[in-house]
Design a protein that fits this description.
Layout (H helix, E strand, L loop, with lengths): L1 H8 L4 E3 L29 E7 L7 H8 L3 E5 L6 E5 L3 E6 L12 H6 L19 H6 L2 H17 L8 H11 L5 H12 E3 L5 E2 L1 H14 L8 H16 L22 E2 L1 E3 L2 E5 L8 E6 L1
Helix pairs in contact: 1-5, 7-9
InterPro entries: ORF904-like_C
Keywords: Hydrolase
GO molecular function, one term: hydrolase activity
């Protein structure tokens, strides 16, 4: 009801968005597939979607495009003509669950943009069902629009700076606070287990990933990270915590999201594990791990 009222009251500046638009696809779309479902959001200021399920998973790439002023490419059905536009709309997603957002907790850019507005009030069982509530809310559309215009005027009077209320910022932190993301677990692993020394030793990424999984299992944490995703996050957090500058131009150092496979880390020691030497790949003083 909230989504319907908001969309109807803000016409023609808003549009409904199918939740499938925001979700990860089970199959990779064909490059020639039409994207007409994105065409209707051109020149809109508000996109509204609802009913995100507990097991739904948001698509990070499309979320970033819609919230980062990136160009969105669209093509209509049975058309060869492509159109590009910049997303100027705010996306409002209505859900009873926080789980659909879990896979984006590792994205600092997304977390900076995410604002959670909680509606703790429950109506079911407290009042008799109003069969005419939609009709009565329709009569309030003009008042809703007037309130939005009032806020818009205030926005421009204050210099065009959108100030998020402290209550919403605090509420977002409170809701997300207990939710540990993959980045947080990797930080714990680095701070507790990863030590830096000056010896000319190397350790393979596979060994570090193995140690991380053992750390998670030992602490009874649930880990669903793939090796690829782990290697995207680990070097960045390692630099932040230990202030080690990882140079992607050096062939024997781990690379940062440039498409190449990392080979070894230098000067890293994993506390609580024994070292076994390996001559694989002819890398001198290469090291792998085993349990102490």
């Amino acid at each position: 009801m909230f989504a319907n009222t908001l969309a109807e009251a803000t016409q023609p500046y808003s549009a409904f968005m199918r939740k499938e638009t925001l979700l990860t696809k089970k199959h990779t779309p064909d490059e020639n597939s039409h994207t007409s479902h994105l065409t209707k959001f051109k020149n809109k200021r508000l996109a509204i979607t609802s009913e995100l399920g507990k097991n739904d998973q948001l698509d990070e790439s499309i979320i970033k495009k819609m919230s980062g002023n990136d160009a969105i490419q669209t093509r209509g059905c049975y058309s060869d003509n492509e159109d590009n536009y910049t997303a100027n709309f705010v996306t409002v997603a209505i859900s009873n669950y926080i789980e659909p957002f879990h896979n984006l907790f590792n994205s600092e850019a997304f977390m900076d943009r995410l604002k959670i507005i909680e509606f703790p009030v429950k109506f079911r069982g407290t009042h008799k069902d109003d069969k005419n509530i939609r009709v009565r809310l329709h009569a309030e559309h003009q008042g809703i629009c007037c309130q939005i215009v009032k806020w818009c005027k205030r926005f421009h009077e204050e210099g065009g700076i959108l100030r998020i209320p402290d209550s919403i910022i605090e509420n977002t932190k409170n809701i997300l606070g207990p939710q540990k993301c993959d980045r947080d677990y990797i930080d714990d692993f680095i701070q507790e287990k990863v030590k830096i020394h000056d010896r000319e030793t190397c350790i393979k990424p596979n060994a570090i990933f193995w140690a991380y999984n053992h750390f998670m299992e030992k602490n009874q944490f649930e880990s669903v990270l793939t090796r690829k995703k782990f290697m995207e996050i680990f070097p960045v957090q390692l630099e932040k915590i230990h202030k080690i500058k990882i140079n992607p131009e050096e062939p024997d150092r781990v690379t940062l999201s440039d498409g190449t496979k990392p080979r070894v880390f230098k000067r890293i020691f994993i506390e609580g594990y024994s070292i076994i030497n390996s001559k694989e790949d002819n890398i001198p003083k290469q090291q792998e791990l085993t349990l102490s």
